[in-house]
Amino acid sequence: MCGIIGIVGKEQVADRLVDGLRRMEYRGYDSAGVCTVEGGQLIRRRAEGKLGNLVIELARNPAQGLIGIAHTRWATHGAPTTSNAHPHATEQVALVHNGIIENFKPLREALTARGRKFESETDTEVVAHLVSEQVEAGLSPQDAVKAVLPQLRGAFALAIAFRAHDDMLIGARLGSPLVVGYGEGETYLGSDALALAPLTQRITYLEEGDWVVITREGAQIFDTDNNEVTRPIVASGATAAAIEKGNYRHFMQKEIFEQPVVVAQTLRSYLRRVEQTVALPQIDFDLASINRVTIVACGTSFYAAMVAKYWFEQFARLPVDIDVASEFRYRDPVLEEGGLSLFISQSGETADTLAALRHCKAAGQTIAVVVNVPTSTMAREADLLLPTHAGPEIGVASTKAFTCQLAVLAALAAHLAVKRGRMNRAEEAAIVEHLVEVPAALNAALAHDEEIAAMAHLIAPARDVLYLGRGADYPLALEGALKLKEISYIHAEGYASGEMKHGPIALIDELVPVIVLAPSGPLFEKTVSNMQEVRARGGKVVLISDAEGIAEAGEGCLATIEMPKVHPLIAPLVYAVPVQLLAYHVAVAKGTDVDQPRNLAKSVTVE
Ligand code: HGA
Hints:
It is found in: Cytoplasm. Keywords: Aminotransferase, Cytoplasm, Glutamine amidotransferase, Repeat, Transferase. The protein has 20 helices and 27 strands. The protein is of the alpha/beta class. The N and C termini lie close together (about 10 Å). The chain folds into three domains: about 5-240, CATH 3.60.20.10; about 245-435, CATH 3.40.50.10490; about 450-605, Rossmann fold, CATH 3.40.50. The chain is globular, with a radius of gyration of 25 Å. Helix 15 runs parallel beside helix 20. The protein has an eight-stranded antiparallel beta sheet. A seven-stranded antiparallel beta sheet has the order 5-6-7-8-12-13-14. The mean pLDDT is about 95. It binds glutamine hydroxamate. Glutamine hydroxamate binds near residues 100 and 123. The site of glutamine hydroxamate (HGA) has 18 residues, from strand 6.
């Protein structure tokens, strides 16, 4: 959320700043802005809405300069208007911010009382005024920033430009990510390595509380106590190639179709095919000694956690608690000694999940993370890093990251089971075989794309949709409902199918389509009974099942979607595909912005 970039360059920067924003647009698209420094002037250009509007504004009013900062916004404080767009500026200072300044109100009141005039409703603008006050009082930019940072509560990644200094920028981070990039006679700041990928592969990840002065010669980094520190320079590995949609209409569609390949890629690093065993990265603690697992995540990653709970309990007989990250810390959870805390996040930067991770670390838990960005903050703070290999996920609605998370979690469940003596060699080999089948099963599920596209018009006019599932397919019902809400704006709810009769069945009528996820198997008959309860009340059912399930219960349904017959372990991965495709095609039928749905953004770096 909110992407920031800064360049101290030897050539013009405006176009390169915009290119950096383009690579971060998935983080927010409420507004965008740049500010360059030239001839003792701050040259600021901002535009409401998508980045294209800023490009038009810059074509009309170019911003010259060899140094500048830029921002793409996901609004937290203040409407998505031009006046709330970053950079926020005074006569002396301009800055961009990712995060929330939680104490902005008292700061703003105090600044107003001192005669400062505000032009936006944002929390961010107070920082511009605070730094400006110090500069106007005669402090150097470094001393000004040093004086202001301790006054800020909340989370921030900042890039600050100074009217009178066309050779340096200052960056700072607390809670939100910020990297420094090193070029040839140029230095950069960015929210992530991907933003800087065309400029440099040489990156320093700033640590919590760090602030940095960048010049053409390099970077000087200071910690929270203002001691100069050295942080390692690493190769970012982020690809400089433009992130393209290829032949697909949307990133989401491309990412749905990438799943067989990226899940195979992910599984390859967790399975030993020849030995038929599950292999985890080397760790220096004994997984057999783990007595309890706490899994914390948000959104789609939380539904992956729900599936994992079924697997960890079933295979490893390990007690598992799962929690939504934004709630976790506030209920003061009981964390027993010897526990493993597992965090799941596509970006590895999700603010709520990161705060929960730090809470557990402080409580002495062993920390494991399943993340798609191996250089992310969570990856760096974990004892056990379990990367997914989904590649960059650009569509705001998560798809391939989810199935890759499930692949890793299934392997982890089997590994824990083996370590705890709950799974013998033959059972482990059988699990490996089932997992190896996943990519082919995903391909078979994707083969129903056209059929799902054709039936999407049955769902598109609905105002409400229900999704039902049982066992490990219940989280998939929740995920299906979330996908539909996110990109088609249709109200949808997921329910454990047995829960219907305890309330939501009151909603059923002929206008509420009910999507039932029911692979044939041990839970099939019970789910079908719940489906009949819906049908008996005039409900219109879309049954997603395999050939056997459809033969048994498909008659009289509004539509059926046939999945390959798979082992129950891998059903959640396979059944993710039809719910993703259904949401996608309904959104396309409704003409919504699939890749950049309203009010949302990716990489949620605010709490
Ligand atoms: N609070 C600032 C920045 C928002 C942000 O970082 N979102 O992820 C604003 O509302 O502009």
